[in-house]
Task: structure prediction
Amino acid sequence: MNDNLLSQHSSKEQLRKENITEVAQAIEVIQQSEEEWRLMIESATDFAIFKVSPDGLISSWNIGAERVFGFKESEIIGQPFDTLFTPEDRASGAPQKEMETALKEGRADNERWHVHRDGSRFFASGALMPLKGGAQGFVKIARDYTKKLEVEKAALDKRILQKIVKTQEDERKRIARDLHDELGQQLVALRLKLEQVRKLCDNDEELGARIDDVQTMARQIDHGLDFLAWELRPSVLDDLGLFAALQKYVKEWSQHSGTSADFITSSKKAMRLLPEAETNLYRIAQEALNNTHKHAKAKQVAVVLDKRGDSIVLIIEDDGIGFKPENKRNRSKGLGLMGMQERASLIGGSVEIESAPKKGTTIHVRVPIISRRNNSPNAKQ
Result:
């Protein structure tokens, strides 16, 4: 994964430099002609192109520079070159070093954070080149890459989150298996031993009653362990898919929480989605139901899972006390709303929450259908 990211980053960096180089070469060819220079810089709206005098003052400013940096020509002409740099870069002498590199090597390529007129920062890729060996100062070309940087960061964050979620699910599966195979078997053995001991105490009512109590506790622990393993990673999710797993989970959750719950679907045949889609939808439903149990004080819950058009729709609705979704304090009370939205975004979906005090809560999740058959969006089932 790291090699791919480095390769992609290297390719993008090369493309950026090539874009700057094309403009730089054009400037080098026509810089002898003032008229062509004027026409070129006035038409370049995507690039900030401006001149810096030998003593470090800005001496020309195109419309692209105004768009990129926010300064109007009348505001910036005559101002020091370092006005466009961040305070820390000014303190480290970055503007002067950039001019020195341009004089020494004929060009100073750079990618750094700059400041807008309003003080906000943006990430720019650019180059500073001397004019006639520096005798006429320098020309600076820069382009705002903040949005592209944000897109790249978002894509990287998504890949990292996907890897974290996969690792988490693998660990859940391992722990659930160990709970079932190790502790589950030990509890079964304990219950069998208790039954044997109980038979030996038929004539001792007091001791028999105590053993009955211990047997009841053992059954409760066994049931709780099964439910815990089921919550961690139900095997039916891998074997039979989301529809079967969610139907069973709603039933188990209802028995465990004591809240009436119905699973509703109109699909006659349960479809199989890609594993990541099934896992994330299951976890969203699980989180929503856990929230209902902890916070909603609901009497009735409905879980709807259906195919609608080219999407899978998951709806969790309760008649509980409700809350104000727009209140940020509610989002920080362990409701897991951000986690649901993150999981939905990982599979190209969205989450909408409708709720109000004393009006219950409805969570709508919609994701595009991606089948296991061909891994393509909107596949026909």
